[in-house]
Amino acid sequence: MSFPPPPFDDSAVVRRSVNRLARRMRAERLPDSLPSARLAVLAQLYRGGSSTPGAVAAALHVQPQSLTRTLAALREDGLVTRSRDEVDGRQYVLELTRSGFEAMARDVGYRDAWLRRRMAAELNETEVAVLRLAATLLDRLAADDTADTADTDTQVHGGSDPNTDADADAD
User: Fold this and answer.
1) Phi, psi of 165 (to 5 degrees)
2) DSSP assigned state of 171
3) Which residues of 39-71 are buried (b: 16+ CB within 10 A; e: fewer)?
4) H-type helices in the chain, by residue range?
5) What is the pLDDT of residues 39-64, one digit of tens each?
6) How far apart are CA 167 and CA 25, in angstroms?
7) What is each CA distance from 54 to 5, 27, 64, 131, 164, in whole angstroms?
8) Are residues 123 and 132 in contact, defined by beta-carbon separation less than 8 angstroms?
9) Which residues contact 98 (CB under 8 A, 6 or more apart)?
């Protein structure tokens, strides 16, 4: 059976490269590192501050129900706290603990060190500068744009479920 070659348009090339690096970064981890879902929640709370579970789920582009076990494990391990929202007592607010920050920083630091070594071994100064510019552009592309996302999800997936992307990664 013969299949067509993979597409080589700009978006396909970028997608493949980003996914390949993301897979490699997930593989470069300490033996006792946090599971990816837990690390994603801790990183979101670190970047965005205290938040409701629903807001964390929205920021991570997952359904709130899919975080239930992850949040319970993080609370049980003392990596996050959960308390009633002072403004809306029906809501809970999650907060990163010192232990949660330290666990996240250890995991991220290990992966950053791996990437730093690879960049030093493989790239010259100009290529590092180009990669840094590319990182800024990728962040811009990854930023939420609800109008564009809704149209694209409908065209590609026939709906607007962000969980249909098999290559989705938290950070």
Assistant:
1) -85, 110
2) -
3) bbbbbbbeeeeebbbebbbbbbebeeeebeebb
4) 10-27, 36-48, 53-60, 68-76, 98-122, 125-142, 146-157
5) 999 999 999 999 999 999 999 999 99
6) 14
7) 41, 28, 6, 34, 19
8) no
9) none
Angstrom distance (rounded) from CA 46 to CA 100: 9
Q: Between the CA of residue 158 and those of 58, 66, 113, 121, 152, what are the distances in Å?
A: 20, 22, 41, 44, 9
pTM: 0.76
Residue 62 carries which side chain, given as an amino acid letter?
V
pLDDT in tens, 86-142: 888 889 999 999 999 999 999 999 999 999 999 999 999 999 999 999 999 999 998
Q: Which residue has the tokens 């970047």?
A: 47
Backbone conformation region of residue 158, classed left if phi is above 0, alpha if psi is from -120 to 50, else beta: left
* Confidence band for 146, pLDDT divided at 50, 70 and 90: low
Please state, in angstroms and rounded to a whole number, the distance separating the CA atoms of residues 171 and 60: 9
Q: In the CATH scheme, what is the code of domain 34-112? A: 1.10.10.10
**Percent of the chain surpassing pLDDT 90:** 74
